Amino acid sequence: MDAEKIPEVASFLDTLPPVEFGCIYGSSLHPNNLDKTSMTDCVLGVEDPQQWHAKNLEMNPNHYASWMVHLGGAQLITKVADHIGVGVHFNPFVAHKDRMFKYGVVRMHDLVQDILKWESFYLSGRLQKPVNILVDNLEIEKLNSVNLKAATSAALLLLPSKFCEEELYAKVCSLSYMGDLRMLFAEDKNKVKKIVQGQFNLFQTMYKPFIEEFAAQDLLRISVDQRVNLIQDCGPSTTNSLVSSLPLPFRSQMGMNLGVEKTFDESVQKVVTKSKEEAVDCMRRILRRKVMVSSARQAVAGLLTAGAVHGFRYVGSKMHKAWRSWR
Prior knowledge:
The protein is an alpha+beta fold. The chain has helices spanning 6-13, 49-59, 66-71, 73-83, 108-117, 123-126, 140-158, 165-174, 182-185, 191-198, 200-216, 236-243, 248-258, 276-325; strands at residues 21-25, 39-46, 88-96, 99-107, 132-136, 162-164, 220-224, 228-232, 260-262, 269-271. The strands form 3 sheets. It has a 5-stranded mixed sheet. It has a 3-stranded antiparallel sheet with strand order 6-8-7. Strands 9-10 form a two-stranded antiparallel sheet. Mean pLDDT is 88; it is low at 322-327.
């Protein structure tokens, strides 16, 4: 995001109750995005969403669907987010200084759990792509390195023995869209390519440390010609190392399908991987299921909480972009 746009977003955050974490994500980070009609997307982490929404309803009641304000207020808003969605409440089409904003509010505990454990793979997937962090009272950026390393491992498992740097970032970027129902009808088919090409330098900054770490462990070899090319061993030893970098609950799910074997430390169980193909097939199925469930739940919650007009306006704009990409 251009430096001159950051004060605009910071001034928008000043109109809301205080947050523990705040970041910008999505197309507004694209250096060539000069469209002021497109929404600036934000994720805001707060300690207690119900208390935060209660305060925000006093300050900005027009941000919310009127039926939610009148029928249940902050308690209903939080319950819909937790029990229908995946813990995130979004307010779209919020106008501020000639710009439109969409902001999602999440409980800090839920954000941390998704980063470390891929519980819903909803916000953790967003944080695997470039974001601009504006507020970080609890060092979420540092914590997110666990998520980025796991995403690198998952992408490497999905890639062949030889590939280029851009292909790695594209595979990382695609993880959070695997199984996403919106990709069938409401997302640009070239979305991943556009994200990576438009933010290539930001991806490099994010993932270079993990490429170098895996190269130091002999899991990767780096070849620099006109572009950076990467070579990996696809044997069982490398596969086991990559699987071991995935979040523990995710590995446990893989172990239920593939089997586990005990290590010297009996509290640690190792996933049995007979081949890379078998491990990849299992990982892909689990990821697709997680993303499909999370995206469906959040879509339903979004239509409810945004209100009919805003909900259909948002879906309509997404579908318009998708249809243009298929022409």
